[in-house]
């Protein structure tokens, strides 16, 4: 379980203007939740993920992971528990290394003397099976440099690398937004399969309303740093794109009366 308690975060631009992104957010993520996160531009979606992964340190508040306060734990140390796939396919993989080298590195993440473990040849069949499932031909390119792969192939690899050691939480920041619709669907279906099979607690940001409805057991709508809708289970299954768009229109009225701007 992850508890976010009374989270505050303000950014200052170079010109000194301030942007209060979170003003006391409370949010609990239950074990096994697969939460889709939607919301307007600048609502704080990526900042929420960055607070969880340790890239952004909150001004106040606490992040509690399975009872442990991890608020002050550095990003590279949290990587043991928290994995992320980014929107940009060039992030999350090492371009000058081969597919198999990248997978081997991910498998050994968190162990001492990573690189001396060398290639993880004993799991090659498993890797080939995972890569073949997605249908982008990667299983035949284990010895290809990752920098030469297509964006879709790199995202496929990033997803498999991020989930190899079953993280406590998987963060997906619009991880299929840069892909064509067919490739995006393939990666989303594989994402769902991996999450469900391994029961990985996950948050997925998307601007695609249909994907937000189709995937996951819970949907949150973030606006001006507040969760204005939190829809679960059977209620979520009844959602339609039209209904979500209607809900979007009520977003300003849903904000609490804290000092927003
Ligand atoms: N490192 C930073 N420095 C300054 N401002 C930042 C920083 N990170 C985020 N912000 C600002 O905080 C606000 C929230 O940003 P965030 O990226 O979390 O929004 P978002 O909901 O993910 O938006 P989008 O849908 O456009 O990606 C924005 O106004 C953004 O400009």
Automatic annotation (TrEMBL):
Keyword Amino-acid biosynthesis: no
Keywords: ATP-binding, Cell membrane, Membrane, Nucleotide-binding, Transport
Location of the protein in the cell: Cell membrane
GO CC terms in record: plasma membrane
Pfam families linked to this entry: ABC_tran (PF00005)
Main location: membrane
Annotated membrane topology: Peripheral membrane protein
InterPro entries, sorted: AAA+_ATPase (IPR003593), ABC_transporter-like_ATP-bd (IPR003439), ABC_transporter-like_CS (IPR017871), ABC_transporter_ATP-bind (IPR050166), P-loop_NTPase (IPR027417)
Coiled-coil portions: none
Superkingdom of origin: Bacteria
Molecular-function GO term, any one: ATP hydrolysis activity
SMART domains named among the record's database cross-references: AAA
Residue stretches making up the ABC transporter domain: 2-249
PANTHER family (alphabetical): NITRATE ABC TRANSPORTER ATP-BINDING PROTEIN, TAURINE IMPORT ATP-BINDING PROTEIN-RELATED
Protein name, UniProt field: ABC transporter ATP-binding protein
């Amino acid at each position: 379980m992850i508890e976010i308690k009374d989270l505050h975060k303000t950014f200052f631009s170079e010109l000194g203007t301030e942007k209060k992104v979170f003003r006391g957010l409370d949010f609990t993520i239950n074990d096994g939740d697969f939460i889709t996160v939607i919301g307007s531009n600048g609502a704080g979606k990526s900042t929420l993920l960055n607070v969880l992964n340790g890239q952004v340190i909150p001004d106040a508040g606490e992040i509690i992971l399975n009872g442990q306060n991890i608020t002050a734990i550095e990003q590279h140390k949290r990587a043991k528990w928290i994995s992320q796939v980014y929107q940009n396919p060039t992030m999350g993989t090492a371009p000058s290394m081969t597919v198999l080298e990248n997978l081997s590195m991910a498998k050994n993440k968190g162990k001492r003397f990573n690189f001396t473990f060398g290639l993880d040849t004993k799991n090659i069949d498993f890797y080939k099976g995972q890569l073949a499932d997605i249908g982008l031909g990667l299983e035949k390119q284990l010895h290809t440099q990752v920098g030469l792969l297509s964006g879709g192939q790199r995202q496929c690899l990033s997803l498999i690398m991020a989930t190899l050691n079953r993280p406590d939480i998987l963060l997906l920041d619009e991880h299929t937004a840069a892909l064509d619709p067919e490739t995006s669907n393939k990666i989303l279906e594989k994402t769902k399969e991996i999450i469900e099979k391994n029961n990985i607690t996950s948050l997925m940001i998307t601007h695609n309303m249909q994907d937000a409805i189709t995937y996951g057991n819970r949907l949150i709508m973030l606006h001006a740093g507040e969760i204005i809708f939190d829809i679960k289970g059977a209620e979520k299954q009844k959602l339609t794109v039209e209904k979500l768009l209607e809900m979007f229109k009520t977003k300003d009225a849903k904000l609490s009366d804290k000092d927003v701007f």
